[in-house]
# Entry
Amino acid sequence: MSSTNKISVIIPVYNAEQYIKQCIKNINLQSYKNLEIIIVDDGSTDNTAKIAKQYNVKYLYQNNSGVYSARNLGLKNATGDYIHFMDVDDIINIDFYESVINNISNTQAEIACCSFIFERYKCQSKVFNTTYIASEINDKISLTDVNIYGACWRFVFNRNFIENNNLSFENGRAAFDRVFTLKAVFLANLIVSVPNAIYIYKNRGSSITTDRKIEAIRKRHADRKSSNALIKEFAEKHQLSIINQIQQLWQYKILGIPVVSKKIIHNGNIKWYFCGINIFQKKEI
# Structure
């Protein structure tokens, strides 16, 4: 393990007083210690700043401009050899960064792809059982499932790789990090999977992804539609074969015969079937 490699952990925050202390402690207690914690405050009006400044972090403030602008500001101020974007209300296992550095050092990969557990829908989690490397484009997409699970917190990036390829987040709709990560995966020479680095994507009631207000639901649908269109455009330009949906299936059987089935599709559709006939569907996310 090369302890000389610094990882900059970029954490955008907005009114995060409930979670920021746990997030910082989670990083401070990592087994790997050469870390730079960058808190980017996106115009918080609560005690987020006061709590953050109690710790040894690089604190940056900007007027409320959105998570993508905050991540870009974090990138501009990062001094680490590697970059990890983290959401303030999520958690990682204690050996997360040590596992990442070990795998990157052994392979010289530009991107490490980590395991994650989706607390809301555990069936949509992706956990690696071993270390894989990929350099061919179809293998890189297959290994990472970036077209489906494109959240940037799943990846640790070489900072020089990001800068040399002028990668940044487009300010705008939610789910646009899928565009950032798809471009990064496409451009990387080598990607390594890291089975022992596990990111827990929490199911918080206050999250923008769980807000059940009709305005929030409509915005999520519009955001996902917009990001899907950008991904499709990028895929067509580079002749990539990409499927933007995934199905998770539950079946309730009687004497081994499926009677009631439930499908969750990644675009947010949930469909219920009775004896193979679609009887009900709704948008969940």
About this structure: Residues 7-237 form a domain with the Spore Coat Polysaccharide Biosynthesis Protein SpsA; Chain A fold (CATH 3.90.550.10). The chain has two domains: 7-237, 247-283. The chain is about 30% helix and 30% strand.
